[in-house]
Amino acid sequence: MPAQETERIHLILLFRVRASLTKTRKVTLDKPQFNSDRDVAIALTIAGSDSGGGAGIQADLKTFSALGVYGASVITAVTAQNTRMVTALHNIPGQIVAAQIDAVLDDLDVAAIKIGMLSTPEIIETVADAISGFSGPIVLDPVMVAKSGDTLLQQNAIDALRHRLMPLATLITPNLPEAATLLQCAPATNVELAVEQGEALRMQGAKAVLMKGGHADSPDCVDQLVSDQPLLRLSVKRIDTTSTHGTGCTLSSAIAAYLAKGNSLEQAVTAAHEYLQSPIAAAYQLKIGQGHGPVHHFHALWGNPG
Question: Is residue 306 situated within a structural domain?
């Protein structure tokens, strides 16, 4: 197919995604509620670094910026990573992780925290201790495996994640394989089973669970918020693309950004789910790497770099 025709189809797809989101949105965002001494909402990401720039800390900070939130960061690990593979991983010493958290929370008026890659029990314990006094919303993305298939969470760290961090989180955002790992069962094969697994995670201490449907084998991607409120089910047509590197990081950090702006959990999840669709649809414009490319966080600002 000629390049011009391919680009025309992608632009049509992006327009349809934006039009669909405009028509189907059901949860209304409140105006941001800031503290009197805060000029801009601040969110903190505690996660690993992706040298390829598509996921981890880099994706989180891009998301915060795209949504008008100031981003602070605590790096828990450094990965040598691109769109095809993770070739090396170095965990930051626990005392340095703790010092970063203390430095940020001691000075910045952080309104929400997003937690991503924590690969060892020691780092999980360190983070849990350091944020135990934080009173704002916490979004925990239980990152276990990179898009390339490389493992990012040590097996012996799963119990620490389950027992130390899950109870502290306002929301956890597992994909289907991650939820199954936390529950030590097979991944959910339909939306009803996914809800049951979300409830099971709540019984293990999670306050609310967003069961993400990106790994499901279905024409629609269905995310389901399981909490003490009525079930919130968000469905969108699956976009045919290989540029999905960092989608989980982007979604969880977008939720944290909207929470930092003062929205309710249901509002933040709905808005973040909607935000993610356009960066995925516009990802083809970037043409980054030879594997799973990143989403385009700044598509609205850059336009088509063509």
Answer: no
Q: pLDDT, tens digit, for every residue of 10-19?
A: 444 444 444 4
pTM: 0.85
Query: Is 23 inside a domain boundary?
Result: no
Q: Is 249 a catalytic residue?
A: yes
- Choosing from 54, 79, 249, 262, the catalytic residue is 249
- pLDDT tens sequence across 203-222: 999 999 999 987 677 778 89
Residues spanned by the domain of 203: 40-300
One-letter-per-residue 3-state SS of the chain: CCHHHHHHHHHHHHHHHHHHHHHHCCCCCCCCCCCCCCCCCEEEEEEEEECCCCCHHHHHHHHHHHCCCEEEEEEEEEEEECCCCEEEEEECCHHHHHHHHHHHHHHCCCCEEEECCCCCHHHHHHHHHHHCCCCCCEEECCCCECCCCCECCCHHHHHHHHHHHHHHCCEECCEHHHHHHHHCCCCCCCHHHHHHHHHHHHHCCCCCEEEECCCCCCCEEEEEEECCCCCEEEEEECCCCCCCECHHHHHHHHHHHHHHCCCCHHHHHHHHHHHHHHHHHCHHHCCCCCCCCECCCCHHHHCCCC
- Examine the residue annotation and report whether 212 is marked as an active-site residue of this protein: yes
Would residue 244 show up in a list of annotated catalytic residues for this protein?
Answer: yes
